[in-house]
Amino acid sequence: MSHWAVAEMLFKTSSDKVCFAFCMGLEAIPQRTRDRYHVEERRHACAILAVDCAEELRDIIACLDNFLLLRSEIEVGGGQKSKIAKRFDNFLAQRGWKEKKIKVGRRVDGREIDTETHRVDFCKGLVAVEVEWNNKDPFFSRDLNAFRLLHELGVISVGVIITRRDELQQIFDGLGAHIGKKYGASTTHWGKLIPRVEAAGAGSCPLLLIGISAHCYADDAPAHPL
């Protein structure tokens, strides 16, 4: 094959990839998944995932598609981490996602000062995922700042946050005042996430934002006899 033919083939492959990335937005997420979750992206995150991190995107989609928000798990106490969050964690861990820690510091006259440790719960390839089900809302700031730093250092290309939509509060309140009270206004939910995102909390890091909606809910309580 001539050098010109090889060059033409490489150009066509590269052009097709660029065109695919340019055209691909939320369409990278299957419609069945978008029917159950509220999905937003920032800085072309979906195109990056679809083209450069296809395996990681498949893991995320499979995790979302296998998830059900069960009434029994909402009602039971979760201790430090709820069963709901643990199911996300267990699924991703089985697919090879691991915690990522990075220490950042400065050296002055050979002495290291101002050392900070940043971490994300799950990282695979160039993608980091944080699941914030019912934490204190400052955790969003921590997550976004970690994404910003890891992206600036070239450790990740995309940061993903999974949290609950505000609409779920109606379901919680309907299960009793003691349940609704557990999910307070100052905990992690969509309404607390977006202002931090719009304030550029993640810097220039591309983001995939996933909100667990009421379409994920399943009432698995046993039926009462008539």
Overall description:
It is a single chain. This protein has 226 residues and is an alpha/beta fold. It has a single domain (3-217), classed as Restriction Endonuclease (3-Layer(aba) Sandwich). The chain is built from ten helices and eight strands. The strands form two sheets. Strands 1-7-6-5-4-3 form a six-stranded mixed β-sheet, with helices on both faces. α1 (3-23) crosses α3. It is globular. The N and C termini lie far apart (78 Å).
Write the layout of secondary structure elements.
Elements: H1 3-23, H2 31-34, E1 37-42, H3 45-52, H4 54-65, E2 69-70, H5 71-75, H6 83-94, E3 98-108, E4 111-124, E5 127-132, H7 138-152, E6 158-164, H8 168-174, H9 177-182, H10 190-198, E7 207-212, E8 217-218
Parallel strand pairs: 2-8, 5-6, 6-7
Antiparallel strand pairs: 1-7, 3-4, 4-5
Helix pairs in contact: 1-3
Q: How is this structure best summarized?
A:
The protein has 10 helices and 8 strands.
Question: Which terms summarize this structure?
Answer:
10 helices, 44% helix, alpha/beta, 8 strands, six-stranded mixed beta sheet, Restriction Endonuclease, two-stranded parallel sheet, 226 residues
- The low-confidence runs, each spanning 5 or more residues with pLDDT under 50, are 1-22
Approximate shape: globular
Helix content percent band = 40-55%
Termini separation comes to: 78 Å
Order of helices and strands: HHEHHEHHEEEHEHHHEE
Reading off the top of the CATH hierarchy, the class is best stated as: Alpha Beta
How many domains would you count in the coordinates?
1
- The name of the CATH architecture is 3-Layer(aba) Sandwich
What is the CATH T-level topology?
Restriction Endonuclease
- Summed over residues and divided by their number, the pLDDT gives a mean of 86
Count of alpha/pi helices = 10
- Structure classification: alpha/beta
Beta strands, count: 8
Q: Whole-number radius of gyration?
A: 20 Å
